[in-house]
Design brief:
A hairpin with a 7-residue loop joins strand 8 (188-192) and strand 9. The protein has nine helices and ten strands. It is α/β, with parallel strands linked by helices. The longest helix has 14 residues, at 167-180.
Amino acid sequence: MFYLIGLGLNENGYSKEASDAIMESDLIYVDVYTVDFPYSIKKLESQFKKKKFISAKREFVESFEILENAEEKNVALLVYGSPLSATTHISLIEEAKQKGIEFKIIHGASILDAVAETGLHLYKFGKITSMPKWQKNFMPESFMDVARENHSIKAHTLILCDIGLSFKEALEQLETSALNRGIVLGKIIVCQSMGTKNQKIFFGEISKLKKARGIENPFCLIIPSELHFTEKEVLEKF
């Protein structure tokens, strides 16, 4: 059996179903490449006595090597948040189907649920996009194209920020991309470590957000579109 398990948003956010599956598993891997965990994986591991958690990097998961033992043993892949947010995980399930490996998906809360705490109506979000850390010869701005497309239909834009991208860098990349496309940004929203004790929500102009201190990974950015009065009432309190 192959278990694909969503852990939720904090070290106690997994379900009873997830806990039972972990205890039944012979091999337990933790996806460590799609997000920065806002808590210690060792602390999570300590909740499951006599179970060892193995860090799974991108190459290992994408090669489907994780499925090699699933025909004979119970193998689990633990994913922060929701287990099917990354396309790699969907590909794993498809590979398991092709190989005739039994599988079970155990869902968990994700950032897609938690952003509702901003007061924004979830049904008013458009396409979700991601912002990678820019390199010398790799400075994609496609996230801003998605934001512009969403704005054209009065939809909010959720931008997921990749591992290794600092808050300062994210704001700089957002500003530069908007400037290159002639887009004027108003107030934006920053969500940090949602669902944890370190959760923070900020709402303001980029110039003011640059002065905010202590914003840590994981965080995401939201570019709001036209606001309903109830959304505005909640946002203005942050």
